Amino acid sequence: MPSAATSTALPAPPRPRSTPPGWLVTLLVCAGQFLVILDVSVVNVALPAMRSGLGLSELGLQWIVNAYVITFAGFMLLGGRAADLFGRKRIFVLGLALFTVASLAGGVAQQPWQLIVARSLQGIGAAVLSPATLTILTTSFPTGPARTRAIATWTAVGAGGGAVGGLVGGVLTQYLSWRWVLLINVPVGALVLVGAVLWLTESRQATARRLDIPGALLATAGLGLVAYGIVQTETAGWGSAAALLPLFAGLAVIGAFLAVESRAKAPLMPLGMFRKRAVSSANAAMLLSGAAMFSMWYFLSLYMQNVLGYSPLRAGLSFIPHSLSIVIGSKLAPQLMHRIGAKTLAICGAGLSACGMVWQGAMGVHGTYLGTLLGPGILMAFGAGLAATPIAAVATSGAAPGEQGLVSGLINTSRQMGGALGLSVLSTVAAAHALTGDGRAALASGYGLAFHVGALVLVAAIVLMLVALPRRREDTTASRG
């Protein structure tokens, strides 16, 4: 038996690094997710000020939104896999750093192309950052109430970021400058970066996975070329080379993407997943729904400021009932799914939104908030909140437990891609119609036509859901047993 003196001479074991408290981990990752979601909507109210400040065209405005959304959608699945392979903390920090620097570049941009490039880089940073936020939470908390509370907080913060975007954008544009809708990300991002470096702990998958970088580049390039070709039809016409060349090039690139995915050992988008009816039909429904609903905030913001003469702050405040409606719809959706089934609820939600779009399309130059904006806006937003959750539930019902994360990423990608393409089509429709007249009345008519076309897209989504979504209620409700 060793003596006391010998025992005290032995070196002490190394002290393990202290685990950060759960509330701090939740705060850091939710702050990162809040910035990502906020930047989808915060620029909408600032668009007229951006146009006058940088000399953007009416159609060029959409690229301030689409540059972010397209790169976000194209790189989102790649970002999730990079976090698994290289470490969730490392990828979180990298994505947030890129997002913060790109926000600074956008805030000081002097030319339209500089702002569009900055928004594209923001989208890539968001695509790298966002998947890591949820994965950090699920790996930091054990299965049970603590993890459930953390994920619920993450979900609520994401919904809140989208909901308050219009108000935040209005306040910053009104009292500071449109540049601050981007610059505000810099101090917040820097603070979260410091906290992440100091307190987050690293985790990664034990098995290495390949990164499908060619797939991400091809998907993003194909989507961007198709969107650009659609925009060119407004000025050059559908039969012009300026429109047809990028359209055909985009379709060819998308074809190359599908070919790469079919042969890749670790594909970004495993095409075999789409052989499952629930996955393929739900993604198609989400693509169409996103194409119609995503641009609602864009056109309402332009209508309020360009036609009704609202200030940025007033426009932002006007979005509060819409934002509350979509949050309420999202919160009610899980309860209603258990009563009437996911398929029925998705159809009802899309139907409500379609009715709201038809109503909103009647907007005119002498519209009022109570008579023109409030009722249809609440109906559109409430329907959108009801529809999104059941469509995602249908998609994940067709996946094995080990595929749930992949299918969730696919459904989010479909929503973003649908939104980008829908914004391109509806902006082109609105701009082309506005050119047939003069002044505010022509703008109002163009925006109204965009809402009516959006309603037709939702009708197509409803028909698809009626025909293709799984019929059995037990296939589409969560944990029915």
TrEMBL record:
Entry's PROSITE patterns? MFS, SUGAR_TRANSPORT_1
Limits of the Major facilitator superfamily (MFS) profile domain: 25-473
Indicate yes or no for the key word Transport.
yes
Q: Which UniProt keywords apply?
A: Antibiotic resistance, Cell membrane, Membrane, Transmembrane, Transmembrane helix, Transport
Note the topology in the membrane.
Multi-pass membrane protein
Q: Does the keyword Glycoprotein apply?
A: no
Q: Which Gene3D superfamilies match?
A: MFS general substrate transporter like domains (1.20.1250.20), Multidrug resistance protein D (1.20.1720.10)
Output this protein's name.
Answer: MFS transporter
Pfam families cross-referenced by the UniProt entry: MFS_1
Q: Where found? A: Cell membrane
Q: Which InterPro entries match?
A: EmrB-like (IPR004638), MFS (IPR011701), MFS_dom (IPR020846), MFS_trans_sf (IPR036259), Sugar_transporter_CS (IPR005829)
Under the heading PANTHER family, the entry gives:
BLR6921 PROTEIN (PTHR42718:SF46), MAJOR FACILITATOR SUPERFAMILY MULTIDRUG TRANSPORTER MFSC (PTHR42718)
Transmembrane feature ranges: 23-47, 59-79, 91-109, 121-139, 151-172, 178-201, 213-231, 237-260, 281-300, 312-333, 345-362, 374-396, 417-435, 447-469
From which source organism is this entry? Streptomyces catenulae
